[in-house]
Design goal:
38% of the residues lie in helices and 17% in strands. It is α/β, with parallel strands linked by helices. The strands form 2 sheets. Strands 1, 2, 3, 4, 5 and 6 form a 6-stranded parallel β-sheet that branches. The N and C termini lie close together (11 Å). The structure holds ligand FNR. Ligand FNR binds next to helix 1.
């Protein structure tokens, strides 16, 4: 857990960093992340951070100095109050670009940017399961990194292709569910931050 004095002062509105777990321009999950910016409640400001500049983890590279893309990612996460991950499911699990980013974020010095950080999960898939298997694996990975992952609500956006129009989430019910997730993340963040020892 990040000790309270290593956390940035909690801001108003809360700074929520959103990591899209897909790199492609027409990504459903990137579009879901963009929708999070739009539907964020008044007390939360969502900004996106692409993982496109994060190279594959390599201990030799790490030992010779962090790549700029990794430093930028670590700084962005460290400077946020909470995280929202919008990621697809690949082969019933976490996409490699996201797992790779988490691996970089989990590295010393400690506390890492993930220690004690409130996190909410969301994911979109053209299929019927809406990334449930990917998110289940992600929860397990995040547990090891010390994040405080929000339990409920869960947001699995299934049959997603029909919910977006020209890259914008137009399905009102899904927009409402996304807003509810962000509201719960904001409440969760303020709860855990004020109950720290
Ligand atoms: C997929 N896809 C997929 N979908 C799913 O619901 N469960 C799965 O296990 C998989 N597996 C999978 C593996 C690989 C390698 C690819 C490329 C794709 C389909 C996937 O959900 C679909 O391509 C999404 O559109 C990817 O997310 P973005 O890029 O649209 O955000």
């Amino acid at each position: 857990m990040r000790p309270p004095d290593s956390l940035p002062p909690m801001s108003t509105p809360l700074r929520v960093l959103c990591l899209p777990g897909s790199l492609r321009a027409a990504s459903l999950n990137l579009a879901l992340a963009r929708a999070a910016v739009e539907v964020a409640p008044e007390d939360a400001e969502v900004t996106l951070h692409t993982l496109a500049d994060v190279p594959l983890y390599d201990g030799d590279v790490e030992a010779s100095g962090l790549p700029a893309g990794v430093t930028a990612l670590r700084d962005a996460v460290a400077g946020s109050d909470a995280l929202l991950i919008c990621a697809p499911e690949y082969n019933s699990s976490i996409p490699g670009v996201l797992k790779n980013a988490i691996d970089w974020l989990s590295r010393p010095p400690r506390p890492t940017p993930l220690d004690g950080l409130p996190v909410a999960l969301a994911g979109a898939s053209p299929g019927g399961f809406g990334t449930i298997r990917s998110q289940t694996h992600l929860r397990q990975v995040l547990q090891f990194t010390g994040t405080l992952t929000l339990a409920k609500p869960e947001l699995y956006v299934s049959r997603a292709s029909g919910l977006f129009t020209h890259g914008r989430l137009t399905d009102e019910a899904t927009r409402d569910r996304l807003r509810e997730l962000l509201e719960a993340l904001a409440r969760w963040t303020r709860t855990v931050r004020t109950t720290e020892p």
